[in-house]
Amino acid sequence: MEIDKAIRESDDRRLKTKYNNAIYVIRRALALYSIEELAFSFNGGKDSTVLLHLLRAGYFLHRGEQSCSNGSLMDFPIRTIYFESTSAFPEINLFTHDTATIYGLQMDILRSDFKSGLEALLKAKPIRAIFLGVRIGDPTAVGQEQFSPSSPGWPPFMRVNPILDWSYRDVWAFLLTSKVQYCSLYNQGYTSIGSIHDTIPNALLSISNSSGSKENFKPAYLLSDGRLERAGRAKKVSASASRCFPADENGMDVDSNQNSMLTASIIAVGDEILSGTVEDQLGHLLCKKLHSIGWSVPQAAVVRNDIDSVAEEVEQRKSTNNMVFLYGGVGPLHSDVTLAGVAKAFGVRLAPDEEFEEYLRMLIGYQCTGDRNEMAQLPEGITELLHHERLPVPLIKCQNVIIFSATNVSELEMQWDCLIESKDSGGCLVPLKPYSTKHLTTHSSDVEAAQPLSKLCLEFPDLYIGCYRKSRQEPLVVSIKGKDPARVQSAAEALRKKFNPGAFSEIN
Ligand SMILES: Cc1cc2nc3c(=O)[nH]c(=O)nc-3n(C[C@H](O)[C@H](O)[C@H](O)COP(=O)(O)O)c2cc1C
Ligand SMILES: Nc1ncnc2c1ncn2[C@@H]1O[C@H](COP(=O)(O)OP(=O)(O)OP(=O)(O)O)[C@@H](O)[C@H]1O
Ligand SMILES: [Mg+2]
Predict the structure, then answer these.
(1) Residue bearing the CA closest to ligand 2, atom 19
(2) What pLDDT is stored for residue 353 in this prediction?
(3) CB 43 less than 6 A from any atom of ligand 2
(4) Can you tell me the distance from the alpha carbon of 157 to that of 14, in angstroms, rounded to the nearest whole number?
(5) Closest to 4 in 3D by CA, of 58, 64, 67
(6) Mean pLDDT confidence for 423-441
(7) What is the ipTM, given to two decimal places?
(8) Model pTM?
(9) How confident is the model at residue 233 (pLDDT cuts 50, 70, 90)?
(10) Segment 280-299, tens digit of pLDDT
C-alpha cells in the first residue's frame, strides 16, 4: 500500500509516530464498528485529505489481517459525506469531486446545514461513527478526544478524530512525504480554507512585487510555523477568551478605567518555600509592582508542587479577583505542575500548542521536541500568548490568570515590564490611579496609640490605616493609604491632633 510504504520508508521519526497513532485510532474504529456504521466527513481541505489517505491505509491494514490484498486505488468502502455549499471555493468543490472519482469514494452530497443534514442521514443510514479531520488548535477541537460523542443537541454518533494531535507541520510532512494530491488553493497561499466569504490567501506567504501586477503567494507548506495557519481566515474573536475582568452581576464588563479598585491575587508554587529551604522574594516584588500601579493585593498564597493544590487555589482566586499571578513550577521537571493545575482549575486539558513549541524550539533547539514536547502543552482553548520582543518565550495567560516563568527577581522584573508593555495583554493590567501613602512614626506605646487609631479608622473608613514596628524597641509606624491624596492628608492631620504636638513625625 503506497501510503503506508512511503511513511515507513521516510526517516521523519515524528511523522511516523503521528502516523502510527492515527492508524491505531482508525483500526480501533474499524474494529468497533462495521463498515456500514462508519462514515468519513470529507470536504477537500488539507486535513480531510490527510485523513482520506490515512483511512485508505488503515482500511488496507485492517483488511490485510483478514485476507490478502494489494490495496488498489478503488478499494475504499467507507461512506463519504460532503456538505456542498455555494459559498465553497470552486477549486475545493472540484478537488472533492475529482478525488471521489479517483479513489472510488461513495459520496453522499448534502446541501443542508451540518446538523439537519446529519439528522436526515442518520435516520436513513445505520451510521454510528464519523471520521473527521479536526485538529487541536481548530476552534471546534476544544474538549474533544480521539473518540468523542457528538455534542448535546446533535444527533447521536461518535466523532472519531484520528489526527486530533497533528500539527500544521505534521499535516504538510504527511502530504509531501506520501506525495498525494491536494487542493490547488494550497499552492496559492491559502493555508486553511473556510468559505469564499471568510478566506483569503495568507499574507505571510505573499511574495512582494514592486511592479504592481497581481500579488503572488508561496505554497502553504512553506509557512514555517503553524501558528499563522489561520492568518487568512476572518477572525471570530471569542469575547470570553480575551476577557480579563470578570463580568459584574448584570453581565456587563467592569470598566477598568473607571474602577479605582482592582484586585490581584498571587500564588507561589513551591515545596521549597514551604519547607523554608528557599526564601520567596518574587511575591514581595509582585506586591510592590501591583501596588505601584494602583492595584490591591488581598492575598498571596504559597502552595505545594501538586496539581490539586494549584488547581484549588487558582479556582478560588480567579473568581474573586480581577487577576491572578502564578510563579514557580513551570518547566519540564516532574515537579513542574503549575500549568496542569491551572488547566484543572478551568476544567480543560493540556494540549500541544504549536506556537509555543516553536518558541521553545528557537530557545532550546530540538532537545525535547521529539514526538511530544511536554513543555509545549498549555491549557486548551483558554490560553493566550503574550508576546514581547524582549521575551524569548511569550508569557502565558489563561483568561484572568497569568503565569510567570521567572525564577528570580531580575527575571521577574523583566517579565513584569514586558507584560505591562505587551500589546497582546488586552490592557489586563491597566494602571489605576496610584495610591497616596503617608508613613508617620511615634514613640507612643501601642497601648497609648490603640484607641485614637481605632477612632481614626472610624472617621476615615475609605482609607487603609495600618501599623507595624520593625522591632519592639523601634518606633511604631502608622501608614495611611488611599487614592485621594487630600483625604490621606486630612487623616494624617487628624491623627496628629489626637496626640501631643510633635508625637508623630512623617517618614518616607
Ligand atoms: C460530520 C460533522 C459532525 C459534527 N459534529 C458536531 C458536534 O457533535 N458538535 C458540534 O458542536 N459541532 C459539530 N460539527 C460542526 C463543527 O464542529 C463545526 O462547527 C463545523 O466544522 C463548522 O465550522 P465553521 O463554523 O468554522 O465553518 C460537526 C460537523 C461535521 C461536518
Ligand atoms: N463541508 C464539509 N463537508 C464535510 N466535512 C466537513 C466540511 N467542513 C468541515 N468538515 C469536516 O471538518 C474537518 C475540519 O474542517 P477544517 O476546515 O478545520 O479542516 P480542512 O477543511 O480539512 O482543512 P483546512 O484547515 O485547510 O481548511 C474536515 O477535515 C472535515 O472532516
Ligand atoms: Mg476547511
Answers:
(1) 47
(2) 87
(3) yes
(4) 31
(5) 58
(6) 87
(7) 0.97
(8) 0.71
(9) confident
(10) 999 999 999 999 999 999 99
Could you tell me how many residues make up the chain? 508
Q: How far is the CA of 138 from the centre of ligand 2 (A)?
A: 10
Residue 369 has pLDDT above 90, yes or no: no
CA dist 362 and 364 (Å) reads: 6
Atom in ligand 1 nearest the alpha carbon of residue 149: 8
Q: Please, how many CA atoms are within 13 Å of residue 367, restricted to the half-sphere of its CB?
A: 9
- Check pocket membership of 133 for ligand 2, CB cut-off 6 A: yes
Is the Cβ–Cβ distance between 449 and 467 less than 8 Å? yes
Gap from CA of 496 to ligand 3 centroid (Å)? 72
Q: Which of 118, 138, 140, 144 to mutate to test the pocket of ligand 1 (most atoms within 8 A of CB)?
A: 140
pLDDT for 278 beyond 80 = yes
The torsion angles phi and psi of 72, rounded to 5 degrees, stand at -70, 165
Distance 262 CA to ligand 3 centre (A): 42
State the Cα–Cα distance between residues 82 and 114, nearest whole angstrom. 10
Domains assigned to the chain: 2-170 (3.40.50.620), 183-232 (no CATH), 261-425 (3.40.980.10), 436-507 (3.30.70.600)
Whole-angstrom distance, CA of residue 256 vs CA of residue 322? 10
